[in-house]
Amino acid sequence: MNGEQLGIVPISEALKIADDRSLDLVEVAPNVVPPVCKILDFGKYRYSLSKKQTQKKAMGVKEIKIRPQITEHDLSLKVKNIRRFLDEGNKAKVTMYFKGREVIRPELGMKVFEKMKQLLTGKFNIEQAPKLEGNHITMVVTPK
Fold first, then answer.
1. Residue pLDDT, tens place only, 36-66
2. Where are the domain boundaries for CATH 3.10.20.80 in the chain?
């Protein structure tokens, strides 16, 4: 019952042991000779597998779009949304788009990202630093 191996046991005896312990006999590796089985609570096992699946799906990427001329209030609102996304366990991708001639002054956009980093102090990691890619700058923030 403590995870020890019982060795090669006939099926009828394995079923009896599982029944005595109110557990299930589950075939883990059917393609080997002899087949490998485990005695466990199959309902709990299925539940733990489904929990692992939902935890993997839960980690999503939420995107926030900003502009270089964003006001203080709007920036603080965007930071508040980023914090909410991170607290929910999601990554946050911040994208700044430049229109027309704005792209010739990317340093203005980098200043906005620096201000955003100062407002985002806490339990967060910057996975991808702000990087200019064509007519936009992207940064990815993840929860610690």
1. 998 999 899 889 888 887 766 656 889 999 9
2. 11-55
